[in-house]
Amino acid sequence: MLILLIISIAVFAYMLYVLLHPEKF
Question: What is the DSSP string of 1-25?
Answer without folding.
Answer: -HHHHHHHHHHHHHHHHHHH-GGG-
